[in-house]
Design a protein that fits this description.
Elements lengths: L19 H4 L4 H16 L15 H24 L4 H14 L5 H4 L6 E4 L8 E4 L4 E5 H11 L1 H27 L6 H6 L1 H16 L3 H9 L7 H13 L1
Parallel strand pairs: 1-3
Antiparallel strand pairs: 2-3
Length: about 240
């Protein structure tokens, strides 16, 4: 079964060496162990740093920003509840609701976040992307339609789980990185986008249950897009160790 996960992070620099050291992880198990740490740490969060992408805000500014995020999320929730959805949109909402029931994602769900934002204007060339304005998962409706026509309903739903797991992986990674100042590895993720994005991939695997091999096969469909060639080489190196 073929499926895809499109990256929203584009790298301009390439990795010179694709040994495990050049990928930031010594082995597949190290990558998976780190992703488990992030997912578990995320599930234990009592408070979310929803303003981590907004720097220089005063205390009142942060409160206002959080209120705006919650308002936009509520608007998306209300829109999705009222709108007459076509079959593709229904599958998107079904898959996202499955994730919203995941025990590890309760910190986001309890805040009313992780809503779907479906529009022809979303995400430029990507099928899905994150939306910090509402901590939602945004989808490009036109690209979703194209994917559905290529794959049919059953395979399309499988693809969606991978896409959503990857995008939510960004939130999990970013929120932990913003608060876990005691972890000596955090600086590496901030400085090394390839290592960061491999971590996001692995968090997506944790949330979806995909194997590294499945994920590599998914990425290989778009092996010339953005940073995917670098990630593919690293995943292959790590699984071969």
């Amino acid at each position: 079964m073929k499926f895809l996960i499109l990256s929203i992070v584009l790298m301009t620099a390439s990795v010179q060496s694709y040994g495990s050291a050049g990928c930031g992880f010594g082995s597949e198990e190290e990558l998976k162990s780190e992703s488990r740490y992030f997912v578990q740490s995320f599930s234990n969060l009592n408070e979310l740093n929803l303003t981590y992408r907004s720097t220089g805000l005063s205390s009142d500014g942060k409160k206002q920003r959080v209120a705006q995020i919650r308002k936009r999320s509520f608007e998306l929730q209300s829109l999705n509840a009222k709108k007459h959805h076509d079959k593709i949109e229904k599958l998107v909402l079904k898959v996202l609701e499955q994730f919203r029931g995941h025990e590890f994602l309760k910190p986001l769900v309890n805040e009313g976040l992780l809503q779907a934002d479906i529009s022809e204007k979303n995400c430029d060339i990507s099928i899905a992307c994150t939306t910090a304005e509402a901590f939602a998962v945004s989808f490009n409706k036109e690209l979703l339609n194209e994917l559905y026509l290529k794959m049919g309903p059953s395979q399309f739903e499988f693809v969606l789980r991978g896409i959503v797991g990857h995008e939510i992986g960004h939130y999990v990674a970013d929120l932990i990185i913003s608060v876990d100042t005691k972890n000596s590895k955090i600086a590496d993720y901030k400085a090394d986008w390839l290592k960061y994005h491999l971590l996001v991939d692995a968090i997506g695997m944790q949330l979806t249950g995909y194997s590294t091999l499945d994920f590599s096969n998914a990425l290989s469909i778009y092996e010339n897009l953005g940073d995917i060639p670098d990630r593919l080489k690293c995943l292959r190196v790590l699984t071969s160790n």
